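Bench notes, afternoon.
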Amino acid sequence: MPIYTYKHPEKEEYIEIFQSMNEEHSYKCEKGLQWKRVFTSPQISANVITDPWDKNTFVNETKNMKGTIGDMMDKSAELSNMRAEKNGGVDPVKQKYFDNYKKERGGVKDPLDPSNKKVFENKHIKATLD
């Protein structure tokens, strides 16, 4: 049931009342005084992560998320894009992962690393594999 707020007609006093949406939205106190209804903007919460840099927020918001692993991966990609927009097109978190991958494997780059373009070239043809 929603909460409705009412203000005392003479004092700066407020009261919150649980009322059904089908009830008449008015309130009279024991003394018979009609209180004025206070209209407020609805308080909603969107499923948005505001800080793409905070990994704890991502973990907390996705642990109870309904959906598939693909939905979580899409959310992760959105955050990566947000970080990249703020850093000239390069996501530093992703770049750090690629650098660590290369370091741990003796210079071999991750297949998904954008700098890992494979080029085949001879005198007749040049092909870039993405």
